[in-house]
Amino acid sequence: MTTDLHASRPAAPSTPPSRRGVLKAAGVLAAGTLAGCAAPSGSRSGGPGGEIPARSARLIHFTDAHIRPEFDAVSGVSTALAHACSHAGDADAMITGGDMIMYSMDQPEVRVKGLWDLWQTTFAQRCPMRVEHCIGNHDIWGWNKARSMTTGQEPRWGKAWWLKANALERTYKSFDLRDWHVVILDSVQPLGESYQGLIDQEQFAWLERDLAGVQPGRHTLIISHIPILSVGMLDCDAKRGEAILAGAGLDASSPAARALVIQGGAMHMDTHRLLRLFERSGTVRACLSGHIHIVESMRYKNIDFHCSGAVSGMWWRGEASNRRFQQERARAGDVDVSERPTRAEPGYAVVDLMSDGTVAHRYQPIGWKYAQP
Q1: Under a CB-based contact definition with an 8 Å cutoff, are residues 157 and 145 in contact?
Q2: Average pLDDT for residues 46-74, to the nearest whole number?
Q3: Would the CA dihedral through 75, 76, 82, 86 be positive or negative?
Q4: Least confidently predicted of 37-41, 150-154, 367-371
């Protein structure tokens, strides 16, 4: 079921950011990297005369806060909330884009309870506006049973804790906001004791029905935690098949092993199926995501794909601390830190949904100074 909010409220004028500003803020800007792709400018003219379209609605995309007691993260989240409310307090809604807390999948119950307590206490300080939530992989408790010391029978195991914390009954939904239909997906599904990016069959069937019911003249915005399409992940996360097979102790000599393979948690694994559905719908104009902590904008098949950095930047670590962490991950088989795209400064995105179906996406750093170098 969808609800139409503020349908009669007049649209407020907006001045979208300049292309220079978007490029300066972006850690990665995908510019014609795939066949048929072109980089959006961050603001697009509404007609042949170059006139600016009216703003229909404004969202704050507040993703990857990763609250924790370490690294002064609580103060960082509070600062980001205050900044968003003072600089974009006229927004119609705030979307928390997933990963509210830091590490839940492999942590014991007492640690996870402390993280959710920190989040709920800190988030209560936000300015009064509508809030919608998107689930992230860090918000899911206990899928790694051995490390979290869980059985899977605990009342708050898996996604249940996130649902309870946000007073929700389901991890995906949609709603109407003036000229726009907004869909929030659950893009995190189990893969062994870890996760992968995709939506399950039940959710896909719901999405088909939901998009089929979008009213004529409305534009659709898709929000997921894990990117549906990301050039940054194609560049830095894809690995040669032989390296993956060799790391698993399997035969890496076949020609197929030389193909590039994208890791299941980096980007949606069902991108092709979703893109075909979006094409059939004809209403999808843009997709928002978080998860990978970079600012990335691209356009493919007349759909804008925006990744909105991270409230936590480099997980609240300073440059040196993050480099050491990434080097440890590289020794375990991850891509070396030197090959990864620049992580975003701590911040959030202001997303203006225009009446003509275009989107202006602006990343807003909060000027945070990391507690540790």
Answers
A1: no
A2: 87
A3: positive
A4: 37-41
Handedness of CA 339, 345, 347, 353 (dihedral sign): negative
Tokens matching residue 123: 């988030």
- Of 143, 210, 140, give the one whose Cα is nearest residue 172: 210
3-state secondary structure the chain: CCCEECCCCCCCCCCCCCHHHHHHHCCCCCCCCCCCEECCCCCCCCCCCCCCCCEEEEEEEECCCCECCCCCHHHHHHHHHHHHHHHCCCCCEEEECCCCECCCCCCCHHHHHHHHHHHHHHHCCCCCCEEEECCCHHHCECCCHHHHCCCCCCCCCECHHHHHHCCCCCCCEEEEECCEEEEECCCEEEECCEEEECCCHHHHHHHHHHHHCCCCCCEEEEECCCCCCCHHHHHHCCEEHHHHHHHCCCCCCCHHHHCEECCCCCCECCHHHHHHHHHHHCCEEEEEECCCCCEEEEEECCEEEEEECECCCCCCCCHHHHHHHHHHHHHCCCCCHHHCCCCCCEEEEEEEEECCCCEEEEEEECCCCCCCC
Residue 91 identity (one-letter amino acid): A
Q: Which pLDDT tens digit goes with each residue over 214-250?
A: 999 999 999 999 999 999 888 777 766 666 666 666 6
Cβ atoms of 78 and 324 within 8 Å: the answer is: no
Tell me the domains of the chain and their CATH numbers.
26-40+55-361 (3.60.21.10)
Cβ atoms of 319 and 301 closer than 8 Å: no
Give the tokens for residue 146: 């051995």
pLDDT tens readout for residues 66-105: 999 999 999 999 999 999 999 999 999 999 999 999 999 9
Rounded Cα distance between 29 and 44, Å, is 16
Backbone phi, psi, residue 142, to 5°: 90, 5
Q: Which amino acid, 162?
A: W
Euclidean distance between CA atoms 287 and 298, whole angstroms = 10
- HSE-CB of 308 using CA atoms within 13 angstroms: 31
Residue type (1 letter), 205: A
CB of 318 closer than 8 Å to CB of 232: no
In the predicted model, what is the mean pLDDT of residues 321-341? 67
Rounded-to-integer distance, Cα 39 and Cα 163, Å: 36
